[in-house]
Automatic annotation (TrEMBL):
Alphabetical UniProt keywords: ATP-binding, Nucleotide-binding, Transport
GO MF terms held by the record: ABC-type maltose transporter activity; ATP binding; ATP hydrolysis activity
Family, similarity comment: Belongs to the ABC transporter superfamily.
Cellular localization per UniProt: Cell inner membrane
GO CC, any one term: maltose transport complex
Record carries keyword NADP: no
Annotated protein name in UniProt: Sugar ABC transporter ATP-binding protein
Shown residues within the full chain: 1 to 238 of 332
Organism superkingdom: Bacteria
Membrane topology of the entry: Peripheral membrane protein
Organism: Rhizobium loti
Chief place where the protein resides: membrane
Length: 238
């Protein structure tokens, strides 16, 4: 399970309204991509879903349950950030297992999950290394692995490939697509990269200045953009 309903979510920082009423349905197992210009509210929306920010109003439901008062660790969500956010002093293995350990998961179960995730992400040779001994692509795979071992209902990715060079971006993108097929988990993925959006998404959500301009499949948006903004973003050449 891993459906998500966002109902009229608004978020203000002081006087500035950053999310101006977001409504969105994500089905279990769907791969949904958020695109939109820098500052339009993509990260804020992910953080509200994750519970890292409270919305000013509106509701977030996961599998039909309002999670407004559910703490982030109890929402069944794992988030992957652009900057990896790994602990430099911990090995790959311990970075991947830390969240489970803190949640009281038995060591044997942590080891079992790390074994599976590290095989999926080709991380087995690196389990005893520290982040400084890894390439950027390997570090991001560790951050993804750390999300996988938690067996979340919902994965949130915030521009996970932005710090990687072009070749690694392609590889890592393919790995994320493969992970989605294997885990059949719900994934929400933020990017400003049109190719990532078009190739990964079942459904693309185009955001602009705190509102949704259009929601649709890549082909729907490409062939029938609702307005010039969407057309410009999804890139039928102007
Ligand atoms: P995006 O991820 O689409 O680039 P963000 O969600 O990070 O956009 O930010 C949307 C807007 O909200 C920006 O104008 C940003 O400066 C503002 N913002 C984000 N977080 C905070 C915060 N903690 N305090 C004040 N303003 C914020
Ligand atoms: Mg952002």
């Amino acid at each position: 399970m891993g459906s998500l309903n966002i109902e009229n979510v608004k978020k203000a920082f002081g006087p500035v309204e950053v999310l101006k009423g977001i409504d969105l349905e994500v089905n279990d197992g769907e791969f949904v991509v958020f695109v939109g210009p820098s500052g339009c509210g993509k990260s804020t929306l992910l953080r509200v879903i994750a519970g890292l920010e409270d919305s000013t109003s509106g509701r977030v439901l996961i599998d039909g349950t309002d999670v407004s008062v559910t703490p982030p660790a109890k929402r069944g969500i794992a988030m992957v950030f652009q900057t990896y956010a790994l602990y430099p002093h911990l090995t790959v293995k311990n970075n991947m297992g830390l969240g489970l350990k803190q949640a009281g998961t038995p060591a044997a179960e942590i080891d079992r999950r790390i074994k599976i995730a590290s095989a999926m992400l080709s991380l087995e040779p690196y389990l005893e290394r520290r982040p400084a001994e890894l390439s950027g692509g390997q570090r991001q795979r560790v951050a993804i692995g750390r999300a996988v071992v938690r067996e979340p209902k919902l994965f949130l990715f915030d521009e996970p490939l932005s710090n990687l060079d072009a070749a690694l971006r392609v590889n890592t993108r393919l790995e994320i697509a493969q992970l989605h097929r294997r885990l059949k988990a719900t994934m929400i993925y933020v990017t400003h990269d049109q190719v990532e959006a078009m190739t990964l998404a079942d459904k693309i959500v185009v955001l602009n200045a705190g509102r949704i301009e259009q929601i649709g499949s890549p082909m729907e948006l490409y062939n029938s953009p609702a307005n010039d903004f969407v057309a410009g973003f999804i890139g039928s050449p102007k």
